[in-house]
Specification:
Four copies of one chain form a homotetramer. Chain A is of the alpha/beta class. Chain A has a domain of about 160 residues: 3-Layer(aba) Sandwich (Rossmann fold), CATH 3.40.50. Chain A is built from seven helices and nine strands. The first copy, chain A, has a nine-stranded mixed sheet with strand order 2-1-3-4-9-8-7-5-6. Chain A is globular. In chain A, about 60% of the residues are buried. Chains in contact: A-B, A-C, A-D, B-C, B-D, C-D. The interface between A and B is large, with 51 and 51 residues.
């Protein structure tokens, strides 16, 4: 098989504005996520950021992307609607999409799911324990029954999403909340996975289990067929599978 | 129970531009659909159209609407994005939405489903036979195993939708195609029903079976609870259900 | 509307074998659950138990039951396969089914869902907090964002179920686990709700929130149409909707 | 990748009882289906039949089967309940299952889906046209928008199934009916595909498109992880992820 081409999209704002975040992710969060993916010989990850022309998501770049990962937080509103539509079209054509953490409020996620994508939250650096809901699923291979992140932001239910196709993880938080922290949906030919962890002020994307899940997820989200180009063709009367004649209004 | 308040939204363009369509629907398609609904004593239907201020869908009007029906075709692009977002918000709060025929390409339908909503089509006035897929569903009560429309536009698969929550009708066309012509989805607290029939150049909304289905559908889509207002509240440490202390970065 | 006819089925074994359980539920768990339902003027609940002839679930009794609730634990294997098939048929016809707690392993639940229905468990009388996943759903009306049970058995993920149609509750346990403690499915014309709480050694079915949820749930599960009788009719050539002639093998 | 191990199960009754069917499938339908699969170098198909000991589905045979295909019709009742449970367990562990044609009424299909699986039918050798509902799905790769079978039995809606995870095909019949002729579900770790064509009295399993779909389907249904063994472990207090003490009844 050809290597899996992943584009890691990063908002790249916190890292530039905050010394604290830059201390954790000196090359930016997107490069840390891409480095994790590139540990796997079958994956070829590159990056794109908000600040690049067309946010780094040109028609050409997306055309050759098998799976796109998305992390954004502070600057959701700065993402151009045109690029959002372009990404939505590619997902419907078959490109995989992995939405990370605060990406729950990204335009592209709300555009594809149709719901509010709201949740409750608290930043207290508390413990998160992610439970595996289906040990037979490709995305959780290599994990035990659960894994923990010692310090994370809390996200709590109700999470404003349509019923997932598959529930992959549910999180337990020390402060008493729960959250559907891993879930999948399909839109057109494209597979979508939402994965909760990854607040910018914790070193979550260095965590071995988190890296493993993201690797598994991009493999799972790989297109299963050549891009399916959207079309709404007219089928004229003489091309109908059954012989018919057009009705003539009396 | 209080009467069910339905707002019938109509694009109201074909009726004003074409003598043929005006001949079929002299008061506009929206008024014909509303008249059908108002045959039922438990339903109170009013109308709103593209040409009115805010397309007739003011905050107040939507706040008191239990179920909105949507017919549009030629002027999807003229519907303001702001109004689309307003309707999407109300659906997530619990307002029912019935999308009719060419509304498959309405901004609001694509916004809520997240897919292309594309299909194939042919206008030959051919016969459509709608089969009931689940005779135990509320929306099909009063129908037999199928009903027919002598002259309709053809819509064919592939229909670019996410898997429906429930498949209600599938259509057979004389020209040889099939189509998922009745299907439901839930977005937040709101119920959505797509119903295929209703091309402007045929008297479909006078058909007794079509009128019955739309009546059943608005009753089925009635909100089951008071509007659920979107929010993403912060839960501070001292309001966490379990006693925790915020982590102090070392 | 006519009163909603609910049959509360109870295994009725623990109560007869254990003084501790009898002390909590002197009339049996089934009578406590039925009493809770009968607080509502629109609900008419009666009981049936394993020990009765045909387990109290005769053809006649089921025919007049709108919604059946099911609690079993120790004696799942003693339920006759014939009665299980009879109940499954009625659910497919439209009868609602509420499966409670250890009923996750009841023959009828596995028969309808098709999966293992397995889970992890611990009996330590620990705290359970049930979070509402969709505040706009009929089943959670009257609740706040969550409610707590001070002492309950723990059930943990992975819960071996097909993806629910709707996720209603997720539980947080003091010992660190999570569980999909409220979920719905549809089978044929019938609505199914699984609700986790209710271990026999705690007074859970006296809890005001638990009673409220069960009341809401039976109303939600009410049949939406007359019973849909299963059939697989032959449609002979001369009854085909389109005129065809049978192919004659050459 | 290792070759995909497929077991083709055949009821093998019509072929032995009827000269007509034997004329079409001299080696039995199961051998024809297996031959089609074995055209692919990545697939290794063997057969098993009702008449063999344990219907050819021993624990060992199933343990090494990646995907099982199932054709039965006249003798559903002769399949032992124990073997049905064994197959259901393997599906939940991750084995793929392809159910063909009249297998809609097989014990294993009803056991896994939970519904009646009923439908309407007519044997008139009429034309069936199968439309692709999602051109981006792995199962339809290599097909055009539709394919036709000149002579087939008719199956019609309502088809008594739970909402599929994915709708793959819908059939149009010359006699006027429609049918959800290709659909998927997941049970535990196992993927299920139902595929309608294949009445015993037509040479359907020699058809190039039918053979292609079955090849695609077994590849799609391949287990995505090692078998997930069912368990319902007790997690004692001292193994709880969070330190708790068992509640002592006052």
């Amino acid at each position: 098989m050809n290597p899996l081409k992943v584009t890691v999209w990063g908002e790249n704002v916190h890292e530039r504005q905050s010394e604290l975040i830059r201390g954790i992710y000196p090359q930016g969060m997107h490069n840390c996520i891409a480095d994790g993916l590139n540990e796997a010989p079958d994956i070829q990850a590159t990056t794109a950021t908000l600040q690049e022309e067309e946010h780094g998501l040109t028609v050409e770049k997306l055309a050759e992307t098998d799976v796109l990962t998305w992390w954004g937080h502070r600057a959701h509103g700065d993402v151009s609607d045109e690029i959002v539509e372009r990404v939505a079209r590619r997902v419907n054509e078959g490109m995989g999409l992995i939405v990370l953490h605060s990406g729950h409020y990204a335009k592209i996620f709300k555009r594809l799911l149709g719901t509010t994508c709201s949740l409750t939250w608290r930043e207290a650096g508390e413990k998160e324990r992610l439970w595996v809901c289906n040990p037979g699923h490709a995305i959780v291979q290599g994990l035990g029954p659960y894994f923990e992140l010692e310090h994370e932001e809390m996200y709590g239910e109700p999470f404003g999403i349509p019923t997932p196709d598959e529930q992959i993880f549910i999180s337990w938080f020390a402060g008493g909340e729960v959250f559907r922290s891993g879930a999948t949906w399909r839109r057109g030919a494209g597979k979508i996975f939402y994965f909760r962890p990854g607040h910018e002020s914790y070193p979550t994307y260095y965590d071995a289990n988190v890296k493993l899940v993201i690797k598994n997820a991009v493999r799972w989200a790989r297109p299963e067929a050549p891009a399916w180009k959207d079309a709404a063709p007219n089928i004229p009367v003489d091309k109908a599978p059954e012989k018919i004649t057009a009705w003539v209004r009396p």
